[in-house]
Amino acid sequence: MILHRVAALLAMAVLYAGVAAAMAGPDGPVPGPLHIVGGPNTGGCIAGAVSLPPEGPGFQTIHLDRSAFWGAPQTIAHLELFGREAAAAGLPTLLMEDISRSRGGPMPGGHVSHQIGLDADVGLDMRARPPLSSSQRSTIELRGMVRPDGRDIDPGAWSPAVTSLLHMASALPDVDRILVNPAIKQQLCREVSGDRSWLNLIRPWYGHAAHMHIRFRCPADQVDCVQAAPPPPGDGCDATLQWWFDQLDAPAKPSAPYKPPPAPIACKAILGGG
Fold first, then answer.
1. Contact predicate 62/131, CB 8 Å
2. Which among 74, 183, 236, 268 has most CB atoms closer than 10 A?
3. Does 4 score more than 50 pLDDT?
4. What is the third-level CATH fold of 2-246+261-272?
5. From its phi and psi, is residue 228 left (phi > 0), alpha (psi between -120 and 50) or beta?
6. Cα torsion for 106, 229, 198, 183, to the nearest 10°?
């Protein structure tokens, strides 16, 4: 049994190393001090990124073939802290997806905000489960918390543990905001009592039915990092939330093909390796 476990760990390490190298890009991370350029809406890049381990206390990475797990050292430290706190609270192992590529820049699928090593996706499914095998980590599809019509949560998927997880995430150091599906925000507005101040950081956004998107603030010494404006005051359980549900009844509008923003000029040396 022990030999089988060792063999499985070695195989996982080899797989992770190969996938990490592919997602890192042809040149890997830029060594040296941290340098973040750009912001969540402008695109950007990062030098001095470090990688989240494939697993650790309270967490595992998933979708190694299409996700990237590099970020600012502070981001990685906060995510590892999140895993430890979730484990201490008796929550299931956290499943972590995209952070950034090793130098930032465009991600597969057009994740603009995942370009500077300050954003991370963490699954919301809080069903009890054993740690995933290597094959399960590649094939798992995160369970959504929202009904197909987008108007409310799926009561069969939702549990108080999801609320606890989001509350825990909001208390991590340097959190700027956490993006979730509007139906998830609506459910929090219904059920959270007592201290509701943390709801200010939970913001509705398109998609995000199966994972939360945690965005951390620019480190104080990163002068080229573009910090987004803070969320408006209040718990967000007002007409601004209802707007999202009104859009479900609005006629569809034609949209132009998406064009990602060009990388900031200062990213040329980082992304190009020059």
1. no
2. 183
3. no
4. Muramoyl-pentapeptide Carboxypeptidase; domain 2 (3.30.1380)
5. beta
6. -60
